[in-house]
Amino acid sequence: MNASDGQLQCTRGCAFGPVPSRRLGQSLGVNTVPCKTCTYSCVYCQLGPTTDTTVERKAYYQTETVVEKVIDRLRGLKSVPDYVTFLGCGEPTLAANMSGILSGISASWKGKKALLTNGALFWMDDVRKESLGFDVVLPTISAGNEQLFRKIHRPHRSLDHRKVRDGIRRFASDFAGELWVEVMLMKGVNDDRRSLEEIRTCIEPLHADKIHLTAPIRPPSERWVLCPTKEAVELAMQLIPGSVDTTGHEEGGFCLRREKEVEDLLDMARVHPMREEQIIDVFRKSGLSPEEASEHLARMVDEGVILRTEHVGIVFYRTKE
Q1: Are the C-beta atoms of 81 and 109 separated by less than 8 Å?
Q2: Is the link from the previous residue into 18 a cis peptide, with omega within 30 of 0?
Q3: What b/e sequence results for 30-48 when a residue is b if at least 16 CB atoms lie within 10 Å of its CB, and e otherwise?
Q4: Strands 178-184 and 210-214
Q5: What is the rounded distance in angstroms from the CA atom of residue 169 to the CA atom of residue 161?
Q6: Per-residue b/e over 234-261, b at no fewer than 16 CB within 10 Å?
Q7: E-assigned strands of 185-283?
Q8: CA 9, CA 11: separation in Å to the nearest integer?
Q9: Phi/psi zone of residue 145: left (φ > 0), alpha (ψ -120 to 50 degrees), beta?
Q10: CATH number for the 15-256 domain, one of 3.20.20.70, 3.20.20.450, 3.40.50.410, 3.30.830.10?
Q11: Which residues of the chain have pLDDT under 70?
């Protein structure tokens, strides 16, 4: 089955946001795969364990439907986002029609497009070729050896550290846009001197334009995953030249469509767990008082529409699947 069959339906969440991003400003998200369809099942993932770990590319959603939803959302916004970003509920490069979706969006919207990817499929010629069309590509490199690669990412059985590393290098050598590498740091996992030096060795040949140090600031898949200490982040910046600290919480509000604030909130919270104050702010923008906003959020939790959880002393909410 391909994307033109008309039988594939993007039932919800093909486009969400824009959401405030620590790296991309106001970013409108594009989902190209169903929730938790990924090449990895990362221990730090904010969406929980992967339910479909795969390396098989498919057209999960009809190309025209995704493009239409993205363009419709762009037209309904009060302000232009900084980026349209392919990310969402899983690994976006698993979508066999990713390039068609990108072309369709580009035909109507001339702003910048970004690809947030774990980079696991860059060993595939077609994935590298299709990804060349983005303005910015953000691959993840959080492990410098096979042991940590498997511990952190819990990849599909066909993947190994060298295969993924070499694929990212091949892509970087051909890519004319900006390459921004993400390093997810976790306390006691990959934030020691040796691990950081091995990560640096993987990154150096890429000649990345930016290197972002990030942390599991939202509730991770595994409870034992914790944010690195300030000292560990400082060590990482010393050992990985050019790296910057983006381990803090994002700043800025959420851009919502008038009279569709709650619908947009649920779409965002499905792929982007939100802090309590962020959700209260959304309800206030829809016209509720602070007291009414808190009461409405409590009802949504009681009704099972949204799930409440805590991480490092901060309350987060995520849409229930």
Answers
A1: no
A2: yes
A3: bbbbbbbbbbbbbbbbbbe
A4: parallel
A5: 12
A6: ebbbeebeebebbbeebeeebbbeeeeb
A7: 210-214, 243-245, 274-275
A8: 6
A9: beta
A10: 3.20.20.70
A11: 1-13, 88, 250-262, 320-321
Other residues' Cβ atoms within 10 Å of the Cβ of residue 71: 17
Q: Specify the residue for token string 């690195």.
A: 228
User: Which of 307, 283, 305 is closest to 316 using CA atoms?
Assistant: 307
| Lookup: tokens for 230 | 């300030």
pLDDT in tens, 64-114: 999 999 998 888 777 889 999 998 688 999 999 999 999 999 999 999 999
Residue 281 tokens read as: 């702010």
**What H or E segment, with its residue span, contains residue 235?**
helix 230-239
pTM, rounded to two decimals: 0.84
Structure token pair of residue 286: 């829809």
